[in-house]
Amino acid sequence: MFVDSIGRGAQRIIDAMVRWLAHGHINPNILTVIGVSLNVACGLLFGLGRFFSAGIVLIIANLFDMLDGQVARLSGRVTRFGGFLDSSLDRLSDMVVFVGLMVFYARATEYHSTLNVFLAGAGLMGSIMVSYASARAESLIPKCDVGFLRRPERVVLFIIGALSTFPGSSNFFANRMPAVLWVLAVGSYWTFAHRMYHTWRELNKVQTKAEEIESQSSHSASKPGPDRRAEQALIHKAG
After folding, report:
1. CB-based burial label for 55 (10 Å; 0-12, 13-18, 19+)
2. Domain 2-238's class?
3. Which residues neighbour 71 within 8 Å (Cβ) at sequence distance 6 or greater?
4. Which pLDDT score, from 0 to 100, does residue 105 have?
5. Torsion sign (Cα): 107, 109, 111, 113
6. Using an 8 Å Cβ cutoff, are 164 and 227 in contact?
């Protein structure tokens, strides 16, 4: 109940911000660009090793990511280009965070880790494949958003990894970014495989249904109707 109360309170705050921005005639595309700019700043902070600050900036950046679509709907400014811009810049937002982490773990410091560089790179490729699979699949089927590691989940994991980072701490819950990279690297490819399977299954359903309809149509066309049967009977009697 306490968690629900927090959720309702947060939603009221977001709704108030959406109304204020919509009534202020703020272009939703501007909110999208601000969000991706903050994500670029977040990537730079990760590269510099300022993880906690990066986590705070990431929270603010994704607040803008939530607002742009809602403001567009409330103000009646939903456009195809706006959707394209938002989707495209989301990919950039994903990549700059991964690249920032790769730079940090590749630097010649005490935190240098070739394994973490590899995991960040694998996570980067996996996240792009997840997004591409969805976009390509939805040109063939109505929806393909299956899988447990979508973009919101990736953002939450990044925030957990960033805010838990306290260099020198021996607490079990501190410095969880390497664990987050493992989850992102493995989970992204699992989600990609899930979307491939889902698309294959949905296309098979469509094909099977089309074949059934075609078979029924062919059967109906080949079956003689009442007039045709009567005509055939008369011809037989006349003969």
Report:
1. buried
2. mainly alpha
3. 18, 21, 22, 26, 28, 31, 77
4. 95
5. positive
6. no
